[in-house]
Amino acid sequence: MHDIEVLEAVQRRVTSFQGVAVRSLSTSPPHDHPEHGRLVYKGNLAKAVLGVKFFSYSTSVFNLFMMPYIMLKSGIGVESLLVQAAFFGLIGIFTFVTPITLHILTKGYVIRLYYKDEVDTYTAITYNAILAEKVTVFHQKDVKIPDITKMFTTFYAKTKSMLVNPTLFPNPQDYNHLMGYDKSSFLKLEDLEEVKEADERK
Q1: Residues 144-193: pLDDT tens digits?
Q2: Could you give the CA distance from residue 47 to residue 29 in angstroms, rounded to a whole number?
Q3: Which of 39, 47, 90, 147 has the most CB within a 10 Å radius?
Q4: At 131, is the secondary structure helix, strand, or coil?
Q5: Residues 138, 125: Cα–Cα separation, whole Å
Q6: What is the model's pTM?
Q7: Which of helix, strand or coil describes residue 43?
């Protein structure tokens, strides 16, 4: 009975801490920023990414706190080295590998994107490893489109991969300018149709 009470007390503390941290990290941002410029994009999965990463981190902390308790009650500490290695390997996967993998996959997810027309620069807001907002400033000429479509990369800002959803841009022209599609070197859809009609008339 005492063991169950200990587990429940630890779980309540982790859950309470999670709720406070998520509320403190999910404040509503303004539409425009005096330093970053005009808000041109806002990701709709920002809270989901934050919640999943925080849940993974809190689970890792919970596992670390409970490891000595589990070893004491289960007697794994006196088992063979093979059993101990298997136990620590399993705990290590959930404690370290999962959070690191989540961070690698979601570190480029853009939660907000601002644009300053006068200097043609963008400011991308993402989450870093400690769940704080990270600011990345880049020029439109720094945007590189990958030659091969990648699952978690829409474009590169210099060398950093960024992930956005084109359909979430309120103004499609903002997305076209970001990707460089409004430059003369890119053929527009109308131009492609005209070329196709010209070939058919020949």
Answers
A1: 999 888 888 999 998 999 999 999 999 999 999 999 998 755 544 445 45
A2: 12
A3: 39
A4: coil
A5: 12
A6: 0.66
A7: coil
80, HSE (Cβ side, Cα atoms, 13 Å) = 3
Q: Bridge partners of 42? A: 112
CA angle 85, 92, 69 (to 5 degrees): 80
**Three-state SS across 148-197?**
CCECCECEEECCEEEECCHHHCCCHHHHHHHHCCCCCCCCCHHHHHHHHH
Token code pair at residue 150: 């990648």
Query: What's the token pair of residue 50?
Result: 């934050």
Find tokens 């994107």 and name the residue.
113
Q: pLDDT tens digits, residue range 109-154? A: 999 999 999 999 999 999 998 889 999 999 999 999 998 888 889 9
Round to whole Å and give the CA distance between 52 and 23: 14
